[in-house]
Specification:
Layout (H helix, E strand, L loop, with lengths): L19 H28 L7 H26 L10 H11 L2 H14 L6 E7 L4 E7 L10 E7 L6 H4 L3 H10 L3 H11 L18 E2 L1 H10 L4 E4 L3 H4 L4 E3 L2 E3 L5 H4 L9 E4 L6 H11 L4 E4 L2 H7 L4 E3 L9
This protein binds fe (ii) ion.
């Protein structure tokens, strides 16, 4: 496929402290060069026979393609980030920055610090929406570096020397300050509004346990750490638990096949949390049984391994095994 040049988004004569000559040279030579490079690489990729081309040739071409795609996309964003009054952050954007960075000023200081840290090097400073996390982050990427997977960048600052040398010489700090004064916040906010409509990756859903309440391993850990009463029950199946070496500290193992035998020892005055190996079936089924018996029971999402993945404390299993296990 052929990639087309995007028209220059900003109006160069409106940018305070940067000359049209700088923007023109940047657009024509560096952005234009990236589009030309990207098309040349695409043609090369389309022309080769993947079954006979040496692996290192394909690998290098794909790396070059990624670098060129990033250069094209980020240059377009960079020009679309300029041409406004950088001080006037519109309401929606201001509250998003305050939510994710503490305050607009805190965001600004972090963004500038990242840019100045690239002084003498090269790279990009980006403000990026992460649908997966539901928040904005600042990030830097340098040549060959990769942007966060799935992130949608809404503001881009080019820290390659070609972006400022013509006007600012080696004074990258003055260039960064000038960029900040010219951010087109309304355009940034428009992109942010589009970005937040992208849904996060679909979470694990267990339709068969529809409205059974779950609790995260982080929440259970916080309950144990703060001394909140909770009855934590490991219901890994017997065939699995006989091989297990560790158990969540603070949990007791109970055979999920024999709920009737141990349910009488539970208290109804404190919540019950059950879990199994990965959090799929057994822990959910046990929680359902306990709820039907009138207990405030939930299952711990992700089970034993999610607990270990957040480095929750465990102890030797044998010490806690019931006599019959
Ligand atoms: Fe550039």
């Amino acid at each position: 496929m052929r990639y087309e040049i995007a028209p220059l988004y900003c109006r160069p004569w409106t940018i305070n402290g940067m000359t049209p000559k700088l923007i023109e040279s940047h657009y024509e030579n560096n952005y234009g060069g990236a589009v030309t490079r990207l098309n040349a690489i695409s043609e090369e990729l389309e022309a080769l026979d993947p079954s006979t081309t040496p692996a290192h040739v394909i690998r290098r071409l794909k790396q070059d393609e990624t670098a060129a795609l990033n250069s094209v996309a980020l240059h377009e964003l960079y020009f679309a980030s300029l041409g406004g009054d950088g001080r006037a952050v519109p309401e929606m954007m201001a509250s998003a920055l305050a939510r994710d960075f503490g305050s607009v000023d805190r965001w600004r200081r972090e963004f500038i610090a990242l840019a100045e840290a690239l002084d003498g090097g090269a790279g990009w400073v980006l403000l990026t929406w992460l649908p997966r996390a539901g928040r904005l982050i600042n990030q830097t990427i340098s040549e060959g570096g990769q942007a966060v997977a799935g992130g949608i960048t809404v503001l881009a600052l080019d820290m390659y020397e070609h972006a400022y040398h013509l006007d600012f010489g080696a004074n990258a700090v003055a260039y960064v300050a000038t960029f900040m004064r010219n951010i087109a916040w309304n355009a940034v906010q428009d992109r942010y509004e589009d970005a937040i409509t992208v849904k996060p990756p679909r979470p694990l859903q267990q339709k068969e346990f529809g409205d059974l309440p779950a609790i995260s391993v982080e929440e259970v850990k916080a309950m144990l750490d703060s001394g909140t009463p909770v009855q934590l029950i490991d219901t890994r199946p017997r065939h699995y638990s006989s091989r297990a070496q560790d158990i969540v500290a603070g949990a007791v193992w109970r055979d999920p096949e024999r709920v009737d035998e141990w349910i009488g020892a539970l208290s109804k005055s404190a919540p019950v949390v059950t879990f199994c190996v990965y959090g799929f079936h057994i822990g959910c089924q046990t929680a359902t049984t306990l709820r039907q018996a009138g207990f405030d029971a939930r299952y711990m999402a992700g089970g034993h391994f999610a607990w270990k993945a957040v480095k929750g404390p465990v102890k030797l299993f044998a010490a806690d095994a019931p006599p019959e296990a």
